């Protein structure tokens, strides 16, 4: 039995089990599943008398369910004979024609939901099979055919006509109302203004007066269509065939229709339009939405895409302004590098990709101190060095429309790759330039920069290797794991996902070949048989030789919260080590970090003469883990850390009116709170004997305050103060009621900076690279440095390759190390040579015969004889 027949059989079986009415005059005649809240159901009364809708309601069968859920009760409504009533979502943006009877309610359904009209819980009419196939009825309008005006309790698709998304014109009419005849627009006799004159050489059109957003009069332009826009930019793009050959003016312009262009307007067709010139949030366009003044001409060739380049001395943004509205092609000379792989753009609320000129963007505070002139300049420079790569329609999960061969093994994209051979039109929205792709590319169109490697180069260097690895919420809840203090699961949602995540982490750690591994974001569910750390180590050791097997460090019972956990968070830090390479020296040490507690009303802030008091504030940080090891006769103390995240706010953010925005210093929220933790770490570890290595996700970039405090900060040489947080406690006691000024750093050495300079990275956020993951050493350990590497298996890869399937659709996953997490592991190779043992003197070899042996016997005999004679 094929799938259609199977589904029909299931639907009939379900329908047979539902209460039904034999016949009905009222029925569903139109279904609208449009953009956002644009949902509508049209009902029709085919009888000769009015029908009271008391007891009637609209229900849906959500996502394949066989039991309906209520949407809109129709009590108090009625339908006159031979007329319609349109039920609308109360937030729909749908304009009905005058005189249409309508009612608004909480109408909410999506593609994949069947919708039924019921009376007294008996089905009167239904649209969609039950259970409903995924994606059925998505982004369409369905209109009942006039020869099928009979209510059905089983859906019959043949009775329905499918119309494009957001088609509302027929709502309220069984037949579409006659459109009034409008005389066709003609450009005949109009003065044609060249498109390049409309665009001009500046950032806005010379036709738009300064301080205004549109021209005073309409202009008429003629060009050839290069692309249609049906979703992201609704209209079409026109371009001069010859242009003015000036590099300073664009030969193309966007024509705004507010909807998809008529079918006659296709690439290659000549079109003449008349409308006002508008600067719409930075995009120069001809607006013909209201009057639709256009004339379609002959069809020819699409203008050849112009090679895009950035001229000497100009920014990427300035170059893009010269091409705004044009059809362009990226080639090797464009020199555009991937700065964020294909993923979710929160500003545009869609999946897209980000490129920048010459090299990926670096986080300003990775390279320069916060609020320094250099950091401020880099923030501005980065904003001017961004081009988003888009598709017109929002792509399906796991799909890149312009790169159909996207896959985890051979069709991947990495930050730093150069993008070539992609063509598209240049637009501007959400404060950024966007290239809307018009062709497709292959993996060969990406010029690889720093390509994948099967193992880090430091994996075989030095005598000992220490790694730091954030494992992206490794939880084993779905594998029968113990619970954590919060009872939440931040990790895999299915056993299949959890096994894949673990396999990828094991692949990465095995390739690192590290002897000590610090872990972050592992579930805080103890150290027993059902703990996440035991689960991971068992799987890891299956891939190791016996001499390279790992064990995990366990804190003492006295340091365990509730007798089991390492702190109270859902996640914690951990440490693995190879007992064949290093020996534990004493018990592990839990280093408590500060908490912040300010009761409501204890702090005030003032702005524009208005004073407010704070809401209650409580902030926490994860504790740090220290363990000393013996290597030969040397002592090494490793400290694993995961400081407070940048996302959730602290008291200082509220006090600076930045609780709902990104802090102006570019260091993220809770910066002072992380400084407090850095101070505690520095004080706790300043007297450690032997070598010291502080590793982990510090949630602070290379030149941000917490890292400067732990390294070489000197207040006397700084342009701004570094302060700790106020209202902090430590181990239940008051730590600092008021924030204090840091005068001097603790002198640790940033090993990445020492080896490679400041421009290193382990993490990508919002298209910018930087190091959140660090290795900081005291002077004696720094002398042992052989090499350090951020192994770029995660930060530069697509997060669609991670273990979770929620946003990746049918995209195949891989067990390899790439996208095992969102942070790169940091691996440090150290020199710990074995002690040199002086060679023992070898004994004189014995002679077992021969002439010399015989002579010796004779001499001994004579000597003995002489002695006897004496």
From TrEMBL:
The keyword Cell cycle does not apply. Pfam families: LTD. Keywords: Exonuclease, Hydrolase, Nuclease, Signal. GO terms for molecular function: exonuclease activity. Residues 1-24 form the signal peptide. Residues 16-157 form the LTD domain. InterPro entries: Endo/exonu/phosph_ase_sf, ExeM-like, GlyGly_CTERM, Lamin_tail_dom, Lamin_tail_dom_sf. This is Extracellular exonuclease ExeM. The gene is exeM.
């Amino acid at each position: 039995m094929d799938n259609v027949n199977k589904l029909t059989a299931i639907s009939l079986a379900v329908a047979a089990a539902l209460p039904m009415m034999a016949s009905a005059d009222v029925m569903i005649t139109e279904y609208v599943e449009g953009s956002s809240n644009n949902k509508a159901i049209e009902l029709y009364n085919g009888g000769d008398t009015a029908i009271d809708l008391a007891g009637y309601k609209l229900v849906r069968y959500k996502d394949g369910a066989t039991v309906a859920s209520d949407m809109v009760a129709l009590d108090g409504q009625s339908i006159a004979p031979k007329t319609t009533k349109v039920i609308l979502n109360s937030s729909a943006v749908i304009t009905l024609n005058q005189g249409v009877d309508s009612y608004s309610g909480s109408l909410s359904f999506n593609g994949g939901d069947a919708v039924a009209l019921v009376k007294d819980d008996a089905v009167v009419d239904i649209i969609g099979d039950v259970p409903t196939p995924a994606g059925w009825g998505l982004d369409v309008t369905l209109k009942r055919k006039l020869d099928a005006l009979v209510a059905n309790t089983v859906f019959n698709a043949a009775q329905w006509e499918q119309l494009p998304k957001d088609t509302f014109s027929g709502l309220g009419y069984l037949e579409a109302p006659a459109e009034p005849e409008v005389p066709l627009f003609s450009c005949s006799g109009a003065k044609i203004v060249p498109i390049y004159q409309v665009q001009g050489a500046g950032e806005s059109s010379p036709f738009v007066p300064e301080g205004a957003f549109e021209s005073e009069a309409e202009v008429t332009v003629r060009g050839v269509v290069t692309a249609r826009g049906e979703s992201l930019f609704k209209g079409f793009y026109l371009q001069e065939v010859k242009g003015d050959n000036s590099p300073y003016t664009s030969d193309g312009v966007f024509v705004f229709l507010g909807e998809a262009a008529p079918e006659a307007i296709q690439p290659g067709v000549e079109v003449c339009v008349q409308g006002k010139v508008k600067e719409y949030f930075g995009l120069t366009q001809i607006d013909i939405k209201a009057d639709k003044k256009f004339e379609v001409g002959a069809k020819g060739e699409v203008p050849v895409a112009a090679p895009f380049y950035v001229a000497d001395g100009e920014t990427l943004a300035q170059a893009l302004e010269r091409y705004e509205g044009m059809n362009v092609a990226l080639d090797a000379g464009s020199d555009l590098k991937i700065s964020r792989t294909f993923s979710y753009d929160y500003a545009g609320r869609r999946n897209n990709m980000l490129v920048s000129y010459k090299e990926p963007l670096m986080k300003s505070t990775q390279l320069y101190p916060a609020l320094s002139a250099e950091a401020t300049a880099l923030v501005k420079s980065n904003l001017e060095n961004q081009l988003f790569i888009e598709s017109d329609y929002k792509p399906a999960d796991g799909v890149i429309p312009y790169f159909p061969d996207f896959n985890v093994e051979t069709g991947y994209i990495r930050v730093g790759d150069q993008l070539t051979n992609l063509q598209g039109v240049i637009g501007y929205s959400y404060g950024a330039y966007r290239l809307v792709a018009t062709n497709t590319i292959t993996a060969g169109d990406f010029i690889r920069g720093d390509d994948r490697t099967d193992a880090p180069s430091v994996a075989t260097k030095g005598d000992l290797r220490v790694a730091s690895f954030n494992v992206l919420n490794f939880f084993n809840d779905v594998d029968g794991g113990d619970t954590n203090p919060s009872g939440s699961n931040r990790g895999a949602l299915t056993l299949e996902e959890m096994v894949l995540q673990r396999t990828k982490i094991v692949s990465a750690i095995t390739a690192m070949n590290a002897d000590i591994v610090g872990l972050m974001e592992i579930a805080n569910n103890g150290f027993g048989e059902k703990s996440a750390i035991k689960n991971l180590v068992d799987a890891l050791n299956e891939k190791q030789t016996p001499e390279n097997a790992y064990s995990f460090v366990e804190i003492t019972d006295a340091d365990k919260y509730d007798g089991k956990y390492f702190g109270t968070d859902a996640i914690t830090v951990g440490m693995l080590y190879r007992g064949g390479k290093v020996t534990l020296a004493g018990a592990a040490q839990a280093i408590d970090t500060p908490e912040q507690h300010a009761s409501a009303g204890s702090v005030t802030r003032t702005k524009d003469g208005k004073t407010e008091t704070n809401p209650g504030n409580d902030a926490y940080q994860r504790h740090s883990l220290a363990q000393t090891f013996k290597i030969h006769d040397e002592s090494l103390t490793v400290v694993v850390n995961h400081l407070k995240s940048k996302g959730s706010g602290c008291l200082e953010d509220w006090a600076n009116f930045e609780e709902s925005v990104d802090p102006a210093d570019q260091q993220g929220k809770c910066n002072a709170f992380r400084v407090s933790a850095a101070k505690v770490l520095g004080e706790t570890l300043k007297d450690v004997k032997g070598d010291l290595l502080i590793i982990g996700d510090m949630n602070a970039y290379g030149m941000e305050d917490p890292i400067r405090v732990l390294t070489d900060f000197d207040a006397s040489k700084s342009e701004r103060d570094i302060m700790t947080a106020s209202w902090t406690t430590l181990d239940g006691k008051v730590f600092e009621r008021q924030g204090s000024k840091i005068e001097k750093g603790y002198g640790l050495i940033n090993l990445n900076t020492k080896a490679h300079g400041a421009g290193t990275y382990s993490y990508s956020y919002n298209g910018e690279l930087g190091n959140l993951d660090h290795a900081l050493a005291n002077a004696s350990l720094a002398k042992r440095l052989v090499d350090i590497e951020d192994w770029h298996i995660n930060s530069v890869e697509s997060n669609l390759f991670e273990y979770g399937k929620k946003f990746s659709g049918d995209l195949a996953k891989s067990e390899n190390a790439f996208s095992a997490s969102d942070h790169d592991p940091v691996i440090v190779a150290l020199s710990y040579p074995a002690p040199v043992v002086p060679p023992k003197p070898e004994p004189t070899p014995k002679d077992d015969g021969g002439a010399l042996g015989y002579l010796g016997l004779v001499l001994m005999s004579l000597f003995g004889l002489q002695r006897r004679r004496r």
